[in-house]
From TrEMBL:
Highest classification ranks of the organism: Eukaryota, Metazoa, Ecdysozoa, Arthropoda, Hexapoda
InterPro entries: MFS_dom, MFS_sugar_transport-like, MFS_trans_sf, MFS_Trehalose_Transporter, Sugar/inositol_transpt
Any Pfam family the entry gives: Sugar_tr
Protein name stated in the entry: Major facilitator superfamily (MFS) profile domain-containing protein
Organism: Bombyx mori (Silk moth)
SUPFAM superfamilies reported in the protein's UniProt record: MFS general substrate transporter
Amino acid sequence: MADEVICHEHSLTPFFRQLLAVSGVVMYMIGTGANIAYPGVLLQQLRQPDSAVQLTPDHESWVASILGLALISGIIVAPFSLEHLGRRITNQLSTLPALGGWALMITAKGPATILISRSLQGFAMGVQAAASPVSIAEYSSPKYRGAFLATIAFAFAAGMLIAHIFGTLLYWRSAALACGSFYALSLVLVSLTLETPSYLASKGLANECRRSFHWFRGYDQDSEKELEVLLQSQKKTGHTLITAKQSKLKTYAELIKKPEFYKPTLIMMFMFVLFQISGMTVIPSYTVPVMCDVTSGLIDDNIGMLMVDVVRFGTAILACIVVNRFNRRTVLFFGIIMTVISLLTTALLLYLRDFGYLPDEYKWTPVIPTLFYIFGKTLGILPIPWAIAGEIFPLAYRSLGSGISGMFLSIMFFVVVKTAPASFGTIGIKGTFCLYAFWVAVCGIFLYFILPETKGKTLYEIERQFKGMAEEVADPRENERMLELGKVEGG
């Protein structure tokens, strides 16, 4: 299918070719958002006395949290698939277990089938958690990379909104069919594009790399310079890796000492802990009970859920613009500060209401800071970790680094979502919000001191920055020297 698209390459600008490639990943991430949010409506319907499937409270917590455990298996597989099969094939194959999971959900007749379904979806999500930021970053030019990476946040929010709308209007089996259709669309779109230039360069496939790079980026002077720098840098890296294959143990021992590997990995660990501890996956899974408590039952459950979804969705659209126009650090720390303040304000109002200090006509007011909390975390904490994940790892270690940091994402997913019902029952929504605010602040403090700015830089420049070569990056003559070297070696 990709060859059919190539025949029409002159009818599409580089931006639209990049957009086509990114759209396949975005459709997948919409499905991921639906996976996360689907329990919010599934469990509500299954609690009805005449439900076709009956679940215990323990079953319910596993349905919501088992994605986190299954993510681990997918993330273990992802580095090997990304490295040996490539970005395009990994994206294609990851849709298959997701489609199988939704097919099982549609036909489920008991808790075991639902849990197997969720496990397959979680495995696919784990593969894609590592593949999506890497793929989007390598498809994109520096000019559009921020906006394209921010579409991951948009896709999450869109998927959550879609799942809740379908689940509100449709029977849960029909809603599952609608949610699963996004993976089929993703498979079609990914199949229409080429492999990423960076992956082809890492494999020493210079001609294929040039063909792919020109298809995605065009032939302008800046693109030609970036292409030659990419090819020459991979010649050097490839030589280093070949000599290092004599001892894998020695290679890994040396690898963890390299600042261009351990610094990005440490940063992404904190990023993904921040992502989960901010309630990013807890709120979509338990939106109805959370909003019922926050609004004191004065607002209909489904309306409260859709209020959260609409704010999240609108903010995610705004994030696509903001992330591309402002520094990554600025957006992230704005989101962190707003999240902490909003969580603590909501908790304070809930405590005041419980102690009788809020008049009856104002008992609904905690919903206001709650919506500001959704706004803050969606604007900063949702998009920036995925944007950074696609930019921060050197090409030679991108698959491995994404897998290791993604492991923290999956572990925290399981821990936070599995413990949420117990936390709500023990210390209440207000206590849980205080706990989340504390850990968000802790992660924010660490990231303030270790996170560099990556906006507007090529992936090669970011790699050199972690190697302590920032001054050379700033010198435009470096790119000229690399370009000339490429011309001489290429004949």
